Design the sequence.
């Protein structure tokens, strides 16, 4: 007999997403929705959507959301949480948003120890704009703006923003997870739940870096993309608790 | 509430006026000549139950204001010209998302780093929407410390009424000068919760989720949103023009000046009136919407008028005077820049050249 053990999360609307086949955003959205449901905080959550492919995340999540200008999500979130400390405030940001244009906001919100949750989607590329180099693009990785591959002499190295943030005394918790297999997805959900629980308990700045696939701009099939994450990406961005 | 008389600088009056108006969130980044505002807020905001954040940049400050406003709080930031340039992106987002906020610009001389002396050369930036897209901020200009204090109440009320950013445009001279004012007795901020602000982000308990957005993917949806912005701007234009008129009844020459230039121009008008000259003054209080109606009315009544716009710039507000009179009478300009402040004597010399 088939037994139903999991329901569609209440915090996630039952509509198809606009994401490409094999994209990690849909999964990440769902994990957040499941965690929000399990913690019973849907009516208290205020989310900050990024600029990038996931800007319309508020079409999918069923709770209060604000947009933020590119890179400024943590400034917006800081104010929301300071004005309404009883709400649960999180940002959902890509690598360009959090680690290029918004590096200043990221470092200072973390350094102030803002009691916030950050879900940081690292897919090593700019998706929305057509696959340009991201701060987290791997060496030799080909993108629209590194047609011969990322060369450290010209473009610098993949930026390990999570490791940098871990140095700051204001930061409570940082973990890097990946969405390349069911086991890793389970771990990712556990980390996301931890990051929200920390905020509920008032423990301070918590960030989960989620390695996520972008088959379209990696030039790979969805399956190949998962293999690339497992075999290549996690070597550059090792998984596990960073702080 | 009992009032009290205090001696205070223009910058401090802005901060005190904001607190009296129920501002419960301030974020800012230091820049001269408006540092008294951020210092006043740092000491007084937490005392009275509000939130003060020293932001890591002007960009962060304006986006913190965006966040605070999204929750329904009365929120403001302040800066001076170069810092206000940095805030323009955020102001465009506030306008697009229809979020109320108050942004104070105590102008210094530009372009670039310029210097810290007073100027009025950000008039275009303030009144023409300094950021990208079709939008307007309501722009208010004060000319005394008392008016700075009182104007903060008006600014927050207009911002909430129209769900629109409001810019207070002053200059370094007005920010730094001290004058006695009558202020409300210091009291804790009344946090104006979002009972009236049904759109605010508070968590979706008992209602559908609220979204704060300026993104509309389709052309139709964005144009529709922009039409509703334009309808709002027309309403503001119709109802919110404000100005102070001085000796307009029999004037043949009318000076037009705002902010501290208007005070200096008043000195010139007084001296010239004493000599029997039929001269008057219009001091626009709303720079956007520009008080065009009074100009049109005066020109209709008297075809022989001459206007002389005086500004601490090389001519910005004068364009609004020209648009308002639409070529029907001469509009002259006199101004200085780089931090130079026109004197009444210089204005008098310029007026005497007109005849």
Sequence:
């Amino acid at each position: 007999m088939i037994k139903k053990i999991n329901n569609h999360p209440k915090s996630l609307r039952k509509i198809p997403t606009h994401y490409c086949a094999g994209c990690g955003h849909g999964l990440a959205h769902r994990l957040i929705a499941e965690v929000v449901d399990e913690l019973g905080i849907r009516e208290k959550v205020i989310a900050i959507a990024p600029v990038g492919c996931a800007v319309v995340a508020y079409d999918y999540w069923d709770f209060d959301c604000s947009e933020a200008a590119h890179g400024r999500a943590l400034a917006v979130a800081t104010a929301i949480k300071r004005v309404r400390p009883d709400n649960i405030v999180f940002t959902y940001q890509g690598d360009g948003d959090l680690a290029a244009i918004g590096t200043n906001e990221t470092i200072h919100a973390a350094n102030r120890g803002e009691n916030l949750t950050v879900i940081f989607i690292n897919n090593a590329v700019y998706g929305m704009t057509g696959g340009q180099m991201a701060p987290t693009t791997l060496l030799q990785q080909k993108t629209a703006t590194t047609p011969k591959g990322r060369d450290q002499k010209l473009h610098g190295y993949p930026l390990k923003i999570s490791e940098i943030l871990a140095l700051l005394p204001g930061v409570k918790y940082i973990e890097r997870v990946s969405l390349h297999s069911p086991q890793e997805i389970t771990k990712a959900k556990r980390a996301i739940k931890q990051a929200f629980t920390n905020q509920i308990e008032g423990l301070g700045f918590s960030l989960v870096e989620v390695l996520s696939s972008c088959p379209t701009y990696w030039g790979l099939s969805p399956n190949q993309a998962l293999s690339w994450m497992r075999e290549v990406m996690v070597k550059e961005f090792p998984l596990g608790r960073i702080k | 509430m009992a009032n009290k008389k205090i001696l205070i600088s223009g910058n401090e009056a802005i901060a005190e006026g904001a607190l009296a108006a129920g501002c419960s969130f301030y974020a800012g980044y230091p820049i001269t000549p408006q540092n008294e505002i951020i210092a006043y807020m740092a000491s007084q905001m937490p005392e009275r139950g509000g939130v003060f954040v020293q932001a890591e940049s002007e960009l962060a400050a304006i986006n913190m204001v965006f966040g605070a406003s999204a929750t329904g709080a009365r929120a403001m930031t302040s800066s001076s010209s170069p810092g206000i340039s940095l805030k323009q992106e955020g102001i465009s987002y506030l306008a697009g998302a229809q979020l109320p906020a108050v942004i104070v610009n105590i102008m210094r001389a530009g372009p670039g780093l310029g210097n810290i002396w007073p100027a009025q050369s950000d008039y275009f930036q303030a009144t023409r929407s300094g950021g990208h897209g079709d939008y307007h901020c309501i722009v208010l200009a004060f000319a005394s410390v008392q008016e700075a204090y009182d104007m903060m109440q008006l600014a927050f009320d207009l911002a909430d009424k129209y769900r629109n950013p409001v810019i207070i445009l002053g200059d370094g001279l007005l920010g730094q000068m001290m004058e006695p004012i009558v202020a409300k007795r210091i009291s804790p901020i009344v946090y104006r919760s979002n009972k009236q602000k049904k759109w605010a982000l508070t968590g979706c308990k008992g209602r559908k989720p609220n979204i704060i957005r300026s993104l509309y993917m389709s052309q139709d949806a964005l144009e529709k949103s922009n039409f509703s912005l334009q309808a709002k701007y027309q309403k503001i234009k119709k109802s919110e023009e404000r100005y102070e008129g001085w000796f307009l009844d029999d004037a043949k020459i009318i000076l037009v000046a705002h902010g501290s230039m208007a005070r200096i121009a008043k000195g010139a008008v007084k001296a010239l009136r004493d000599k029997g000259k039929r001269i008057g003054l219009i001091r626009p209080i709303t720079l956007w919407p520009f008080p065009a109606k009074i100009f049109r009315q005066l020109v209709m009544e008297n075809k022989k008028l001459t206007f002389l716009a005086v500004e601490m710039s090389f001519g910005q507000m004068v364009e609004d005077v020209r648009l308002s009179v639409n070529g029907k009478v001469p509009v002259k300009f006199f101004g200085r820049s780089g931090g130079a402040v026109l004197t009444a004597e210089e204005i008098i010399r310029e007026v005497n050249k007109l005849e």
